[in-house]
Amino acid sequence: MTQDIDPITLAVLAGRMEQIADEMDATLFRAAFNPIIAEAHDASHGLYHAVSGDTLVQGKSGLPIFVGVMSFAVKAVIDKAAENGDLEDGDIYIFNDAHLGGTHLSDMRLVRPYFHDGKLFCYLASVGHWHDVGGAVPGNYNPAATDAFQEAFVLPPVRLAKAGKVQTDIIDILMRNTRLPQSAQGDLNGQLGALDLGKKRLDELLAEYGADTVRAALDALQDRAETLMRTELTDLPDGRWEAEDFLDNDGITDTPLPIKVALEIKGDQMLLDFTGTADRCAGPVNIALPTAVATAYVAIKHIFPSLPANAGVMRPIEVKIPEGSLLSAPFPAPVGGYTETILRMVDVIFSAASQAAPDRVVANAYGTINALSISGKRANGQPWVMFSFYGGGHGGSPEGDGLNHGNAPISTATIPPMEILESAYPVMFKQWALRPDSAGAGQHSGGMGATYEIEVLEESATAFLFGERGRFAPKGVAGGGDAALNRFEYEQDDGWHAPPMASKMVGIKLQRGQSVRLDTPGGGGYGAPANRAAADVARDVAGGLLTPDYATQTYGPDWKEVTQ
User: What's the rounded Cα separation, in Å, for the pair 489 and 208?
Assistant: First the structure.
């Protein structure tokens, strides 16, 4: 029988448990060796249900996409432990198999059962984006991959520690399958430290309040999240709304791939039906089913931002993913470009929701992380791999213009600072600036994208790009205009060139002094451009965000009459 818990105690315990996850995040961010974790915060920690694996609590600094997918990771470990039949206090499982735990093979997952008084109480989990885990392309974003083995070394759930004793042979295998073993070892140690801290803090919490009270709080938080979600849905009109968007291609065949959703509300329930989405493709823009379900959760959290981050939110929501589609690709389908596909899923959910509740939804953000890897060898023969993602504009909203040069809405990951990248790798940023005229027009315009130009300082290097939105621009909503397309160019002896597939390319050979350049999209506009205040247009022209000709073409000449 569930123990009753008073509201004050519930609020205190909710804060304490969130703090545990937050401290785990902070511990890894401080300890990690690679800037994707240390600077960009591409990682997450949380507490998960002992039986179902459902998300109980997640840290506020972790990536939202991990809220959903990490529950699948914990479930995979629960199933594996059941096969072994000997789960012990001090065990730690590790794996990166994206078809079991979601996202892609760069995300290394550690799952640790937490015992109290000899009984399993919950699971602690840590996930972090390792800099390199083998595969054909340094940094693992291989746009030409046709199976998972071309993307990275695939590790199923295995026991890294048994009853507190680390299995060093597992670490030896991991370190032999990365181009950057020092970085990988540092990230692993950081994740192990975060799990140790989580255990220590849970020990303190349960000693203070008792296991029954904490368990009751966890149950109550999920039940209340469900109630809040049902209330929010009841406030919306019943109906069915559809939206469709496209991926440029799969990196193998230059054919657009549709992603379609029908959003249906009936009373206090919602259906997200992705029937009509493209079939599984040859290239790595497929995603595994856990990733697709988790993406739906991320979009819902954006539409209903006040709701807590636990599994109760999704109880009133059915996510229908068609079997055989690129949203439910089985192993060993390549899934390394999952970020591009889930961004498009978020976009179509927003576009459908804007028809039902335009006051709750923002226009499409820039819609691609532009995963760019540049690698080579230093003069002393040591390999280097600069992998990073890049920002763009966010969509306009009912409240105002979109954010200029933001991070992707699937995450809270920040864009690694230019100074960090230049100090760590033999490159120089010749440009890092806002991109004029890149935002969608609207009563509230989208945010601006960015221009990055990166010069190679070593004798030679090879670049790989995995992006999107090169052919299908981020959409506006409620009458707003579309943003600019993504654009990538690379320099050769005979001048600048663009990829044949617009947004994806492998094996770009660069010599010292040659550069690559990204012009990222802005966000879509919100509301009719004719309703934008002339003073706002004049301000953007004065600030260099809009060129005069573009401003006049898009918004008319009235802005010229405004005195700044």
Answer: 59
Question: What are the tens digits of pLDDT across the range 419-437?
Answer: 999 999 999 999 999 999 9
Please report which helix (H) or strand (E) contains residue 506, including its range: strand 504-511
Which residues contact residue 490 at a Cβ distance below 8 angstroms, ignoring those fewer than 6 apart?
Answer: 463, 496, 497, 499, 505, 508, 510, 514, 515, 516, 517
Q: What does the pLDDT read at residue 3? A: 64
Pairing status of strand 383-388 against strand 371-377: antiparallel
Secondary structure (3-state) at 303 = helix
- CA atoms of 88 and 97, how far apart (whole Å): 23
- Answer whether residue 115 is part of any domain: yes
3-class DSSP assignment, residue 328: coil
Half-sphere exposure of 198 (CA within 13 A, CB side): 34
Q: CB under 8 Å to 18, separation ≥6 — which residues?
A: 57, 59, 60
Query: Is there a domain that residue 291 lies in?
Result: no
Task: Judge contact between 59 and 67, C-beta under 8 A.
Answer: no
Q: How many domains does the chain have?
A: 2
334 falls within a domain: no
Tens digit of each residue's pLDDT (9 = 90 or more) over 69-105 = 899 999 999 999 988 888 999 999 999 999 999 899 9
Q: Which residue blocks in 90-234 are alpha helix, DSSP H?
A: 98-101, 168-176, 181-209, 211-234
> What whole-number distance in Å separates Cα of residue 52 and Cα of residue 120?
12
> Tell me: the pLDDT tens digits for 182-192?
999 999 999 99
Q: Which residues pair with 384 in a beta bridge?
A: 376
Six-digit token pair at 256? 């657009």
Q: Which residues contact 318 (CB under 8 A, 6 or more apart)?
A: 269, 270, 271, 272
297 found inside a domain: no
**Assigned token pair, 261:** 């959703």
CA distance 307 to 116: 30
Rounded to a whole number, what is the distance in angstroms from the first to the last CA of the chain? Answer: 67
Could you give the 3-state DSSP secondary structure of residue 206?
helix
In terms of residue numbers, what domain contains 123?
Answer: 7-225
Domain boundary among 174, 200, 225: 225
- DSSP annotation of 354 reads H
**What pTM did the predictor assign?**
0.92
Contact yes or no for 24/195 (Cβ under 8 A): yes
Cα 564 from chain centroid (whole Å)? 40
